[in-house]
Backbone:
């Protein structure tokens, strides 16, 4: 499977498993799962065909591990804008987590902190390198350090998805450390 096809199938899966399952007639269960055969049939009925082998390749090859397969079901690991309960237990975060963004967002972040925007949670990276890649998707990246240790001590709840992305409802500005030269 070539890289362009892999990306195309991955984006299709993200759109319909994270944001708009109803567009192709899918109904996800409360935890975001759907039967793989149902997904493949619904996609085909709406003009986008892919095989189980292609699906397995996309899931295995995705460096961010965006999707999880359990038995005959699939779901997105996180990033939903629709109502799902991933069933992730609370977890104790490392002292610092990271968030990649771009310079033009910094004034709003300084004022309001990190908000989930159209998602359920704020996504945080366990390392600076990952956060840099995330920020670079929108331009020249700026990496913020989140004082996750202090947040956790102050009662904020964290979860970690199967692919290592840390999730929390919001990050108030007082827990953020900005780079010196932003």
Residues:
């Amino acid at each position: 499977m070539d890289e362009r096809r892999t990306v195309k199938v991955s984006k299709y899966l993200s759109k319909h498993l994270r944001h708009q399952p109803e567009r192709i007639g899918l109904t996800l269960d409360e935890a975001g799962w759907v039967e793989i055969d149902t997904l493949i049939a619904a996609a085909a009925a709406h003009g986008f065909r892919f095989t189980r082998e292609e699906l397995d390749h996309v899931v295995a090859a995705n460096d961010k591990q965006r999707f999880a397969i359990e038995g005959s079901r699939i779901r997105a690991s996180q990033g939903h804008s629709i109502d799902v309960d991933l069933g992730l237990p609370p977890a104790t975060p490392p002292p610092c987590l990271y968030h990649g963004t771009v310079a033009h967002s910094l004034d709003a972040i300084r004022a309001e902190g990190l908000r989930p925007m159209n998602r359920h949670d704020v996504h945080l990276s366990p390392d600076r390198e990952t956060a840099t890649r995330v920020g670079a998707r929108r331009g020249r990246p700026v990496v913020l350090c989140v004082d996750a240790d202090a947040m956790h001590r102050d009662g904020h709840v964290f979860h970690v998805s199967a692919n290592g992305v840390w999730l929390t409802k919001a990050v108030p500005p007082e827990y953020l450390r900005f780079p010196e030269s932003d």
